[in-house]
Amino acid sequence: MNINNDLEKLIENLPFFLQEQLNKHNVKDQLIEIVLDLGRRPEARFISGTQYLSQKLISWQDIDYTTKRISKFSNENRAGIERTLHRISCIRNRQFLINGLTCRVGRAVFGIISVIRDLLESEKSILILGKPGVGKTTIIREIARVLADEMQKRVIIIDTSNEIAGDSDISHPGIGRARRMQVAKTEFQHQVMIEAVENHMPQVIIVDEIGTELEVLAARTIAEKGVQLVGTTHGNCLENLIKNPSLVDLIGGIQYVTLSDDEAKRRGTQKSILERKAYPAFEIIIEINDKNSWIIHEDVQKSVDLLLRGNFTTRQIRQFYLTEKIKIKCNQTQNYQNSLITYSNSLNPSFLTTNQNWILRNQLKDRKFLKLQTKKLIIYPYSLSSNLLKEVLLKMGLTFTLTNEIKKASLIIGLKKNLKQNFKLINLAKQKNIPIYGLNQVNLYQITKLFQLINQLNVE
């Protein structure tokens, strides 16, 4: 992984006393941003934390010295340095005079997206989620270079704030052969997105910080034209996107649907439920909350549907470090508010929980689980219809025996509210180390889901 930050070009535009401090700093390569506020000591923010650079307070002259050496500030109060990726943002007083500067270090990091190379080759649209400052822009800059140079795609970058390709009419080499369309004002971003498709025949469109309903509509229009999209937006996870009314259309939108009595009973849900309205504009979502560990949703359509139903959704965790190989893990998470199944590993009623991460951790750690297709299940049904249970198990092609002796059972299945009240059953199961599964409601749908879950959690 190679890093090009042109840090010297940023430092040379600062007041002399700050240049001296930064040039001799032993970890300046970890610098994130420099903060200059009138009447305060200058701060340098590193990966490890914040440090003061001097005892001297920032004066009007210090701020004026820096602003005269950089480009003009846009309507969004952002400026840059010619042929670099650095961004300088200003704070103004009531008279519109600049009394504060935030100088963010821009870096072109080559090789950072090796962990998702296979996703780029799939030619599916990718949305990157993350908090401000987590590195989303750095990632899509490298994605643009890889797609244009290594995969020979026609790539166009919609560069609204000049953060992706630098503050100059000549694009920064960090984007490779990708072309860049600058946006005069933020409110015109959606128009430039459509213009790029209509005028320049791109195979891939790169957009940073999708944030308005018009930009979301433009993204959907581009996706429907068959152009691959790579974009970013603010948010911690997929659930945040579902709850954001301005952005939810990126993943298909949601609507209330009223089910018939029979359908609601079959699903085991209320009559009024939330469902996805349309196909997602982005087929893959990457959640970045840690620079070395990314969460991947490879099938956004399926993940959204499962989240809305309160079921389990599968996601990947891809980890990478400079000194180690890439690791890909797969786990399951569950919507806490509308879970179907509960399980107690400790067999204590107070631990009957819907926390699926806790379930996975304890099951995989403490016991080798049943492999349903190859092993015979001996089931003790508690407060369940034996005929209903048989119907589900036969349809799933499982080998099983129903027993009325707990000591012979390999697992216990019952209604959650009844299981909680039977302390004698729980204590006996604990002594025999027999797992207990609880259902919130008893119907074909939920019993089927229960055995599908057990099958998914199997460990050889």
UniProtKB/TrEMBL annotation:
Annotated source species: Navicula veneta
Keyword annotations from UniProtKB, A to Z: ATP-binding, Chloroplast, Nucleotide-binding, Plastid
AAA+ ATPase domain: residues covered: 122-278
SUPFAM superfamilies per the UniProt record, alphabetical: P-loop containing nucleoside triphosphate hydrolases (SSF52540)
GO molecular function: ATP binding
Name assigned to this protein: AAA+ ATPase domain-containing protein
InterPro entries: AAA+_ATPase, P-loop_NTPase, PTPase_dom, Spore_III_AA_AAA+_ATPase
Superkingdom of origin organism: Eukaryota
Cited PANTHER family: KINASE-RELATED, P-LOOP CONTAINING NUCLEOSIDE TRIPHOSPHATE HYDROLASES SUPERFAMILY PROTEIN
Gene3D superfamilies: P-loop containing nucleotide triphosphate hydrolases
